[in-house]
Structure formats: C-alpha cells, structure tokens
Amino acid sequence: MANEEGTPFQKKLYGRRKGPKLSAHKDNLRQTLLPQHRLNIVQGADPKSYFAVPVEEVWLEVGFGAGEHMLANARNHPKAGMIGAEPYESGVAKLLSHMEDDPPPNLRIHEGDARDILLALPDHSLAKVFVLFPDPWPKTRHHKRRFIQTEMLTEFARVLKPGGEFRFASDDAGYLGWTLERGLAHADFIWTAKAPGDFEQRPAHWPPTRYEAKALHGPPVYLSFLTRTKVTP
User: Fold this and answer.
1) Is pLDDT of 96 > 70?
2) By Cβ atoms counted within 10 A, which residue in 128, 179, 180, 188 is the most buried?
3) Could you tell me the EC number(s) of this protein (predicted)?
4) Is 101 marked active-site?
C-alpha cells in the first residue's frame, strides 16, 4: 500500500506517549482495570469476538483523548462494540478514571497505534470510524505526519462495511481542508453534507468533549463520509 508521496503505508507513530507522572490512583487503574478492557489483537479476527457481550456492530475511535466521546457512545449504544486506540498514557488513564464506577462491557482499549488494529481487521468489519480532533501538524514539512492520508482513507474503506461511516472533526482549518480534499477525491467515499453549513453543526447524538469545547484554533467543523454501497475493487 502506498500513499500520495509514493512511500509505503506509514507505520511510524508521531507524538508523545508519556506525560506527567500519573497519580497513584490512576496508575492503579492501569494495573487493575485496563487489563479487563485491553484489546488483544488477533490477525483477521472478527472484531465482534473481542467483546465479552454480544454486539451487533463495531465502531473504532482513533486517538480517543480522554475518552469522553467513546465512553458516552459505549453507554448510549450497548449493542455496538467500541474499540478505541490512544497511545498517550495519560489519556488512557483519564478514560479509566471516567469509567471505573460503571465500566461498560462493550468497550475495548488499545494503548497504542490505531494502525495496529486496522492492519489486523478483516475487510468490511466495522460500521463506523471516528478521527476526532487529531494533531493537525500545521507545518508544511510535517504534513506527512498527519493521520489522514489517501492511503489511510483507502484502509478505512477496506475495513468499513458498504455504507459505513467515517467521521472527522477538527478546529484546524488547514487539516479540515486537507481531509475534505482527500475525502472528495477518494472513489470509495461520499461526503454527506446536503447544504451549506451542515459541517458546522455537531451531528445528532455526538457526545461533546472537553477539547471540542476549547476550540483552540477556531470553530469545530464536522465532516462525515459514507462508504459507497458498492465498494471499488
């Protein structure tokens, strides 16, 4: 698989993994609660098999931050399995602290790169993929570090079911334009916006996050793409 620069599918993870030292309580949650919800990746396995409870479909969140969006989805959609990837140790610890009193059985955590999960998934095995407020890597020389590349959209199209949804959100105009350009150009995706301003409205049932509320770089914009019902070979 090659990207638009012609280089192989990039498997290098950029950004930090460690932050300030965790509190004793959060460190204890990583030792006790995380093992109960850790995703044990099996090459080619149906992702529904990762859960201790029956689920009808599986959603993936790439870089879940503190986990508010994924945790709300897990509680609001008990028949859907939630898989989240987050390499930042403090983000995982925050999610664990949010869920410790009522841990949902339909949630699995990968403390690492989402590409580990994607490369193991069988074709057409996910219903939704979320990439919400990723690092925009604004400098031109760092654009190759952006998670959204043409090659990544191709991988999303492979793992999503026909008619599956890819949702992207950012408050960085440069990254929004970058993603929209590549999404519109991709043969396997259809942008769902029907009218001007649609992308400025948070989709219904979209759980808000603290980062979204900060809107550091500008008003949040929400892009939603559906895979075509007939996927290109």
Assistant:
1) yes
2) 179
3) 2.1.1.33
4) no
